[in-house]
Amino acid sequence: SACGAASPTTPPAVVALARASQDDSLSELAAGLALEAGHWLVNRNDVVVRMVNDPGAYSKASFAEVNDRLAIDLVVWVDARGTTAEPVVSYVLETSRGEARAAKRSDGLPAIPRRIAEEVLLSLKLGTTGALWPAWPMPAAPAYHAYVRALGRAHTKAKTEAERVALFEKVPAAIETYPPAVTELGGAYLDLAGVSSGTAPYYDRSEEILRRAVQLDTLYPPARQKLASYFAKRGRSEESLRLLQNGLVTHARFPGN
C-alpha cells in the first residue's frame, strides 16, 4: 500500500533494520537501536510494527526484498559508525513510494530510538503527541549503551538461551526500571526454561521478571504477551487468556494478540 495512504482499518506496516559495519560491536549497537525503535513504536495503534528477531539479517537487502518478505510500507535502516565508545548513529527512512529521509544523530543513545519512532510517524503523516508515548524512566547513557549492545548481540549472534540470559544479566542494574530491558531478560529466562532440564527455577525467575515488567508498564504489549506465554506453558490457561484478551482491547494489532 502507498505510504500514508493506508485506511484506518489497515495501518501502515513498519520495520526497523540494521546496516552492517566492519566492526561487530557497531553492528550490534545498530541492531539494538533498531529493536529499541520497534519497542517504542509497538505501543502505538496507528502503525503495525514488524518485530524481526535479527535486524542485521537484512543488512544488504533492498526495500523491495524486505517488502517481499515482510509486507511493509516503511523501513528504517539504522547504521552506527565511529567507535564503540563514541558512535555516530544515522538512519534512513525508506517508503514504498521510493521516498527516503536521512538523519544523523548526535544526541545521547537513550534519546535516539524514540526520535527514530517520531521520525517514522512524521514520515507517515501520523500524530506524534507526547500523550501517546509511554512515560518510561530512561536509564543513564552508560547503562543504556550496555543494554543496547547486549540486546543487539543477543539478537544478531547464534546465541544459546543460556548465553542470552548471561548477556542481559550482565547489564547494569540501572536498567531494572526500564520495561523493554526487563521484558527481554524475562523472555530470555522463559526461553531457557523451555530447553533446559530441571526447569522450575528458570520458570520461577521468568515469572518474577515478567510480572515486574508488566507492573512497570501494564500497557506494554511485549511484556504482556511474554507473561501470557509463560502462563500458557505452565498450564495456567485462564490467566494467559485474560492477558491476551486485555491486549486485544488496547493493542489489537500487536502480533502476539
* Average predicted local confidence, pLDDT: 87
Biggest sheet, in brief? 5 strands, mixed
Q: Order of strands in the sheet with the most strands?
A: 2-1-3-4-5
Q: How many β-strand stretches?
A: 5
What does the radius of gyration come to? 18 Å
The secondary-structure element order is EHEHEEEHHHHHHH
- Distance linking N and C termini: 23 Å
Summarize the amount of helix as a percent range. 40-55%
Low-confidence stretches: 1-7
Structural class: alpha/beta
Q: What's the number of helices?
A: 9
Descriptive report:
The protein is of the alpha/beta class and 257 residues long. Strands 2-1-3-4-5 form a 5-stranded mixed sheet, sandwiched between helices. The two termini are 23 Å apart. It has helices at residues 24-41, 63-70, 112-123, 141-156, 161-169, 179-195, 200-216, 221-233, 237-250; strands spanning 13-18, 48-49, 74-82, 87-95, 100-105. It is globular, with a radius of gyration of 18 Å. The longest helix is centred in the first third of the chain and has 18 residues, at 24-41. Mean pLDDT is 87; it is low at 1-7. β4 (87-95) and β5 (100-105) form a beta hairpin.
